[in-house]
Amino acid sequence: MTLSQLSPALHFDLSGALARFGGSEALLLRFLRRLPEDKTFAELSAAVSSNDLPGVERAAHTLKGVAANLGLEALQASSDALVVAVRTGAGDQIPTLFAQLRGDYETACRDIAQL
């Protein structure tokens, strides 16, 4: 699989990601391949499980930034939705929003593993 073949479900912004990585596809690939190893998703999962709202906000915000830099627009959007839910006091939406985020994260990791 090549970068241009990543799942349409990711809403992958290849041109934007390449611009952020100085046009280097090799550098972008290196950072994409680090996503599954990053501890942020595990931290977010733990925070959601323990209803640690500051932890949810912090980890979701971090994941949003990582996803944005990597051009993973679906993951960025679902991370942002979780951040907004915490900030606006919509804690009852967290389980549903986290389920969406988890799906986006798993899709990204699955596709990245094929690069």
Automatic annotation (TrEMBL):
- In the UniProt record, does the keyword Phosphoprotein occur? yes
Q: Which GO terms describe its biological process?
A: phosphorelay signal transduction system
Protein name, as recorded: Hpt domain-containing protein
> Where in this protein does the record say Phosphohistidine is found?
H61
Q: Which residues form the HPt domain?
A: 20-115
The organism's superkingdom is given as Bacteria
Sorted alphabetically, which Pfam families does this protein's record hold?
A: Hpt
Keyword set for this entry?
Phosphoprotein
| Organism lineage | Bacteria, Bacillati, Bacillota, Clostridia, Eubacteriales
